[in-house]
Every structure is written in structure tokens, then in C-alpha cells.
């Protein structure tokens, strides 16, 4: 029975390896090497690496087929062998291959053992204690994450590297929450979200460097400007649906970038805008010595100056901004307009029949989403102190969208988890060099395989007729 | 009964062409408040097209659609969602269109959107959590709860609408349309796919909508037992034309109607 299917499995695995070979020969097989100015480039061949990788892919695919056929033990055995080979001091052509082999083995073991784990989880969740843990998890996970985020700078792990990463992740969390209104709640696929981020960033950069306005004064202005851009774009395009809307927003994102790039008089084009002032704390600046007429924060608080103060302040600013975004969204979801957003995502025709104006409703979602991108953009400009069109490419929109989709459309906690995963992981794995994007891709594939509806697919009703706990059992 | 004398909706010379195809050809009829008007006819007779014109999903090629409320509304001049918002015509769909991921209660609250938007001061009062909005929301929930009791879904209120059994989804869609507080309710084949018991329940619900809520109901239906037992007035369409109109018992005997439904074979009628 299995013996009969074995040739089929071997063929399948061979085919997979063949495809990998066809792709890999160009990506992994050749490297160009600069061998001096006169002769230019030459090739370096990495066929040993490719060969090992192909063997791993062949075995991995075979293992997956075995696991899918219910032959868990052979699959696990294969996975363990690969894992051991990966971590053994065996001489492989490069260090990365150790990772590759070991990770492949580990994945295979996980895949083969997955049905058991699934059963155990399902059985566990069905017991009263399981349900209790589930409920506590749902209710308290957010508060727990918030406590971690607030306390992080005060702990010993809160060094410069962590704080930098924290600020970066929180910026994406905020952008994710903003886009979640548009994509997750209202169901409008926006591929040009970064345009509003750029509008916010340039608003602050220009108003501060040319008109001397401070961060806190510009913040609401930047939000309003970005929202106006949202409405401006929204009016003509929001009658489009699905794919068409996605393409138009994609185009809009590029247009904004190209305008910034080419309107040299205003934006200094590709050279970017530099020496943007950072955010101030009650008028005091974060610097070792204050410019005339100003005070440094260290002087104001009477503490010795440290370069970390600015970073920790930035961290709390973006944490605050992100929390405002979250609170606002949570509140909106429980209001009629928020319910109309979700209803529009579910069925636009039915909404029309109920007398809901779809254009206005979509426009509010678009404008509010854009506003939060504007806030985040201002913050980004104030943090970087230098911005250029390079920072607002399509890939940014794609990453923010990936955070929303992988987090589970409409889930606020999901956005946090996805941002930590997608932004944090590549940063943590910087040692892997250019292979870190492989980890990024792997994370995405794994989420989509194991959680096809996003990390958190659970939707909490915006209102309940029977509050939880009011009635026994349930 | 004087109120019931004036028609609630008047369809005059309604014609709808799609390119060369004439889906509805010069159809006129009227529907009264506190009455159930059924539109029947074989498949492809143009029943749903009439509905789509009345509810603003199609713009009629020719014709006038008059709805009487506090003032007169000319539906053919209104945009899709305005008909629900201002003229207060609500409808259900042949293939149920609920908001499946949202709960039963949320579905009924979305139906009260326009009322709640005003109460929430276009979301400003709502964001501030002012009592004005909270009271309006409580009232909306109470209203929704009444309807849940009438359709027997109170216990399911917090379940996603998409998880309900088919018959319950049908009832919920009607309740959702009623939560918009309409003057005219248009039901597109509400009994499709229901078993006899559910169908009888539906009849009771529709009669209570007519008698208790006192609104006009337009009904497209294939199930003749539903049509004959509850409707006050029947309009028969065939190939886009109106072939008969009148009380159900009269229409049932009309030779043109029998021909349209059963073909021209006289023996088949006698048998």
C-alpha cells in the first residue's frame, strides 16, 4: 500500500528538487566576484552548497509526503537525522547550510508531530481549565503585552539595540493598526498606504525646518494633511472594488513618491531633508548642549546627560501614539460607523439596501487610516532627523499590509505579534546576513500554512446581548 | 381603513431594457400599506428586475415609481442607498445576504445605522462616550431584542450570523430589514429552501408584520401555498409583461395565469 505509493513520492520529491535546482542554480550556484578594476567581474561557483541544499530539499519533500500519508515515524526519523546532521560538526561548505539542514529537519519533525499536537491542544481546550486559560488569554494578553512594553526600557535588556528595535517595531505596530482600519475592518485593499506615511513625514520635515514649528504642533497638522490626502484620493477611487482599488492605491503610492522625488524646490528631491529637529519634552531638547534659548532635558530634570535618554523618550512617544491609535480604533469599532465598516467588508450590496452610504463610510475609514499614517510619518521624520524618498517605497506598503494580513485581518493583538515577528526577527537575525530575508519568507509561509486566516483569526463581537459570565455554562 | 385606501407604492409603466433584452415591459401596479402584494410568475418573468428597480439597484429605462410617505418620493430618481435611507424601502435578497462574520445582534444594529449615526453625532458623541449616544444605543439594542424575540433568535444573539441554520438566516434577514423601520418591505422569495414547518412560521411572521407593524409588503414568491394563504393582492408577470392582477382566488382561476404556469395544453388543466 505504502510501497505502491513510494515511487510516486520519490518522483514528487525529485521533481521538487529539480525545480529548486532550476531556480537555485542562478541564485545560489553562481556568485559574481570583483577581481580588480581591469578585468572586472568573474564567477565564483557554489555548486557544493547547491548540491547539499538539493539533497535537503529532496529529503524534506519526501518526509513531508510521508507525513501527509500518515507515516509519522519515518518522517520524524528523517527529520531527526537532518537535525543531527545540521548541528553536528560535520564539515559543510558554509555555516548557513548547517542552519538550513537543521531547520529543515526541525520543520519536518514539527510537521510530522503536528496532528498529535493539534489533538492535544483541541483536547486541552475542551476541558474547563483549557477554556479558562483561553478566556484569560483573550482578556489579559493585551494588558500583559502593554506591561512588557511599558517596563521594557527600565529593565536591563533595555539597552540601545533593544530600544532602537523597539521604536522600529512600535512604528510598524502603529502603521499596522492604522492600516487595519482600512484593510481589516473596512475591507479596502490599500497597497499605497506608505503615501500617507510620506505625507506625514514631509509635513513635519518641511514645517519644522522651514517654519520652525515644533513636533507637537505639527503632529495634528500632519495627521490632518494626510487625512485630506486620503479623502482626495478616496473620492474618485472608492467606488472601485477589490483588485481595482488595490491597483489604483498602488499607483497613488508611487505618484506621491515620484512627486516628492521630482519636486526638488520643495522637497530637495532625492537628496532628502536633513537636520530635522527631534521631538521635545515640554520645550526641552535632547542633546548634550542646548542651542541658545533652549534647555536640555538633562538640565531640566537635573540628571547627567546620556545618549540613551533620547531613545527612551522616542520609545515612549511612539508607544503613546500607537496606544492612541489602538484605543481610537477599539472605540470606533463599537460605534455605528465601525460596525458599518465591517458590514461593508462583509457585503456592500446588503449595506446599500439598508440605506448605508457606502462612499461616505469608506471615506471615513480611508481618511482615519491615512491620519494615523500621517502621525507615524511625523514621528519617523523626527526620529530619523533625515528623510528622503528612499524610505517610502512600495516595499514599505507591502510590509505593513503583510503585518495586517498575517496578524489576522481586523485583530489588534495579531498586528502586534505579526510586527514583532516580521520586523523583529529580521533584525535579530542580522548575523545571517542576506539570508535573513529567507527567515522572513519562511515566517510568512509558516504562518500561512498553519494559520491561514492570520495569527489571531478570532473576532470579538463589538457588542453582546448576553455578556460573558452573566449566564452559566456557555 | 381610510389610510389603507391610498396606495403606498405605485409602479407606473415600468420598463427595463438590458441592451436588446426587454426584461420588464410596461408594467404598472400598486401596493397598499397594511397589505401583502405578491408578484408571481415563472422563472425569468422579470420579478426580481422589478424589485431591483424599486430598491434602486437598477435605474429603470422608462417608468415612474412613486412612494407615499410624509411626502412623495420618486424612487427612480434616487441613488441606491438613499432609497433605504430616506424613502425607507427595505429589502431582502433571493440568496441571503447577511453579514456572516458579524453576530446576529450586530446585524440588527447595522440596520439601524442612520438613526445611530445621528445619535452618535457622526461618531463624535460616541467617541466621547456621551450619555446621548449611550441611551440611543440601549434603545437600539432593545429594539433589536424585540425583533430577536419575534423571530425566536434571542439565545443566538451573540453568534456569528453565518453560523445560523438556513431557516434562521432567512428570518434574520427579514428582521434586519424591519430594523430599518421601513414603510415598504420587499421580500425576494423568502420561503425558498424552507421546510413546511419553517414556511408556516414565515407566514405567521409576515402576517404579524402586516397587521402589527402596519407596513406594506411586496413579495416575490414561487411557493404558491405561501402566496395564496397570506397575500391580499397578486400581480402575475410573464415574459416581462403583467398578465393578470387581483385577489389571490381570482388570479388562481385566471386562464392566462394557468396558461403561463402550466403551458397551453387544456387537458393538463382539466386533469
Summarize the structure.
The complex is a heterodimer of chains A (474) and B (271). Helix content of chain A is 71%, strand content 2%.
Structural commentary:
The complex is a heterodimer of chains A (474) and B (271). In chain A, 71% of the residues lie in helices and 2% in strands. Chain A has 474 residues and is mainly α. Chain A contains 18 helices and two strands. Chain B has 271 residues and is α/β, with parallel strands linked by helices. Chain B is 43% helix and 23% strand. Chain B has helices spanning 2-5, 47-54, 80-87, 104-111, 113-119, 124-128, 131-151, 166-178, 196-211, 224-230, 248-253, 255-262, 266-270; strands spanning 9-18, 21-31, 36-40, 62-68, 72-74, 89-91, 184-188, 216-220, 233-238, 241-246. In chain B, strand 1 and strand 2 form a beta hairpin. The chains are: A mainly alpha (474), B alpha/beta (271). Chains A and B meet through helix 12, helix 13 and helix 14 of A and helix 3, helix 4, helix 5 and helix 7 of B.
Q: Helix-strand pattern of chain A, N to C?
A: HEEHHHHHHHHHHHHHHHHH
Helical amount of chain B = 40-55%
Number of strands of chain B: 10
Assembly state: heterodimer
* Count of domains of chain A: 2
* Sequence of secondary-structure elements of chain B: HEEEHEEHEHHHHHEHEHEEHHH
Arithmetic mean pLDDT of chain A? 83
Poorly predicted tracts of residues of chain A: none
Structural class based on helices, strands and sheet pairing of chain B:
alpha/beta
Residue ranges of chain B: pLDDT <50 for 5 or more in a row? none
> Which chains make the largest contact?
A-B, 30 and 48 residues
Shape label of chain B: globular
Calculate Rg of chain B over CA atoms.
Answer: 20 Å
Structural class of the secondary structure composition of chain A? mainly alpha
Number of helices of chain B: 13
Average pLDDT of chain B, rounded to a whole number, is: 86
DSSP strand count of chain A? 2
Amino acid at each position: 500500500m505504502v510501497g505502491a505509493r513510494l515511487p510516486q513520492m520519490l518522483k514528487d520529491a525529485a521533481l521538487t528538487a529539480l525545480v529548486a535546482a532550476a531556480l537555485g542554480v542562478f541564485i545560489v550556484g553562481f556568485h559574481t566576484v570583483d577581481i580588480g578594476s581591469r578585468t572586472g567581474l568573474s564567477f565564483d561557483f557554489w555548486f557544493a552548497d547547491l548540491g547539499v541544499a538539493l539533497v535537503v530539499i529532496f529529503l524534506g519533500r519526501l518526509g513531508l509526503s510521508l507525513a501527509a500519508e500518515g507515516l509519522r515515524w519515518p518522517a520524524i526519523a528523517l527529520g531527526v537525522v537532518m537535525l543531527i546532521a545540521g548541528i553536528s560538526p560535520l564539515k559543510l561548505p558554509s555555516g548557513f547550510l548547517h542552519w538550513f539542514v537543521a531547520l529543515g529537519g526541525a520543520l519536518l519533525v514539527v510537521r510530522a508531530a503536528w496532528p498529535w499536537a493539534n489533538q492535544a491542544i483541541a483536547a486541552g481546550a475542551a476541558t474547563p481549565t483549557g477554556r479558562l486559560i483561553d478566556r484569560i488569554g483573550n482578556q489579559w494578553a493585551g494588558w500583559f503585552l502593554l506591561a512588557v512594553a511599558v517596563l521594557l526600557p527600565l529593565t536591563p535588556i533595555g539597552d540601545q539595540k533593544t530600544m532602537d528595535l523597539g521604536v522600529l517595531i512600535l512604528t510598524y505596530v502603529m502603521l499596522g493598526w492604522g492600516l487595519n482600519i482600512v484593510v481589516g475592518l473596512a475591507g479596502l485593499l490599500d497597497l499605497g498606504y506608505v503615501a500617507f506615511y510620506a505625507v506625514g513625514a514631509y509635513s513635519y520635515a518641511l514645517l519644522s525646518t522651514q517654519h520652525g514649528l515644533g513636533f507637537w504642533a505639527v503632529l495634528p497638522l500632519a495627521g490632518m494633511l494626510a487625512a485630506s490626502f486620503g479623502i482626495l484620493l478616496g473620492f474618485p477611487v472608492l467606488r472601485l472594488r477589490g483588485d481595482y482599488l488595490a491597483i489604483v492605491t498602488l499607483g497613488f503610492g508611487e505618484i506621491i513618491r515620484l512627486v516628492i522625488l521630482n519636486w526638488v524646490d520643495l522637497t530637495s528631491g532625492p537628496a532628502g531633508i536633513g537636520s530635522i529637529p527631534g521631538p521635545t519634552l515640554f520645550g526641552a531638547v535632547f542633546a548634550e548642549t542646548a542651542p541658545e534659548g533652549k534647555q536640555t532635558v538633562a538640565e531640566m530634570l537635573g540628571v547627567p546627560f546620556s545618549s540613551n535618554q533620547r531613545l527612551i523618550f522616542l520609545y515612549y512617544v511612539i508607544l503613546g501614539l500607537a496606544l492612541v491609535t489602538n484605543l481610537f480604533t477599539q472605540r470606533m469599532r463599537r460605534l455605528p460607523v465601525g460596525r458599518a465598516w465591517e458590514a461593508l467588508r462583509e457585503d456592500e450590496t446588503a449595506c446599500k439596501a439598508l440605506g448605508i452610504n457606502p462612499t461616505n463610510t469608506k471615506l471615513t475609514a480611508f481618511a482615519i487610516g491615512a491620519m494615523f499614517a500621517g502621525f507615524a510619518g511625523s514621528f519617523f521624520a523626527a526620529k530619523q532627523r533625515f528623510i528622503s524618498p528612499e524610505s517610502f517605497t512600495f516595499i514599505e506598503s507591502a510590509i505593513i499590509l503583510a503585518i495586517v494580513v498575517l496578524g489576522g485581518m481586523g485583530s489588534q493583538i495579531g498586528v502586534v505579534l505579526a510586527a514583532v515577528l516580521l520586523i523583529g526577527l529580521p533584525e535579530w537575525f542580522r548575523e545571517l546576513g542576506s539570508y535573513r530575508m529567507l527567515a522572513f519568507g519562511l515566517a510568512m509561509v509558516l504562518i500561512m500554512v498553519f494559520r491561514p486566516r492570520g495569527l489571531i483569526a478570532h473576532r470579538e463581537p463589538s457588542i453582546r446581548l448576553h455578556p460573558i459570565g452573566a449566564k452559566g455554562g456557555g | 381603513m381610510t389610510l389603507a385606501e391610498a396606495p403606498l407604492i405605485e409602479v407606473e409603466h415600468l420598463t427595463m431594457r438590458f441592451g436588446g433584452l426587454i426584461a420588464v415591459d410596461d408594467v404598472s401596479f400598486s401596493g397598499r400599506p397594511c397589505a401583502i402584494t405578491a408578484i408571481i410568475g415563472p422563472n425569468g418573468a422579470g420579478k426580481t428586475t422589478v424589485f431591483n428597480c424599486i430598491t434602486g439597484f437598477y435605474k429603470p429605462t422608462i417608468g415612474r415609481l412613486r412612494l407615499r410617505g410624509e411626502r412623495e418620493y420618486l424612487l427612480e430618481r434616487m441613488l441606491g442607498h438613499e432609497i433605504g435611507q430616506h424613502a425607507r424601502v427595505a429589502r431582502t435578497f433571493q440568496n441571503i445576504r447577511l453579514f456572516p462574520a458579524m453576530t446576529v445582534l450586530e446585524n440588527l444594529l447595522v440596520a439601524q445605522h442612520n438613526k445611530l449615526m445621528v445619535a452618535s453625532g457622526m461618531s463624535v458623541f460616541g467617541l466621547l462616550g456621551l450619555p446621548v449616544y449611550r441611551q440611543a444605543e440601549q434603545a437600539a439594542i432593545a429594539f433589536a431584542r424585540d425583533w430577536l424575540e419575534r423571530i425566536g433568535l434571542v439565545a443566538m444573539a451573540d453568534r456569528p450570523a453565518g453560523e445560523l441554520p438556513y431557516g434562521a438566516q432567512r428570518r434574520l434577514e427579514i428582521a434586519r430589514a424591519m430594523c430599518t423601520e421601513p414603510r415598504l418591505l420587499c421580500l425576494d422569495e423568502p420561503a425558498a429552501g424552507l421546510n413546511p414547518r419553517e414556511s408556516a412560521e414565515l407566514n405567521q411572521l409576515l402576517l404579524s408584520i402586516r397587521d402589527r407593524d402596519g407596513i406594506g409588503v411586496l413579495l416575490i414568491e414561487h411557493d404558491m401555498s405561501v402566496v395564496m394563504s397570506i397575500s391580499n393582492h397578486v400581480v402575475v408577470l410573464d415574459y416581462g409583461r403583467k398578465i393578470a392582477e387581483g385577489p389571490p382566488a381570482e388570479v388562481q382561476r385566471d386562464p392566462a395565469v394557468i396558461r403561463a404556469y402550466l403551458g397551453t395544453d387544456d387537458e393538463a388543466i382539466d386533469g
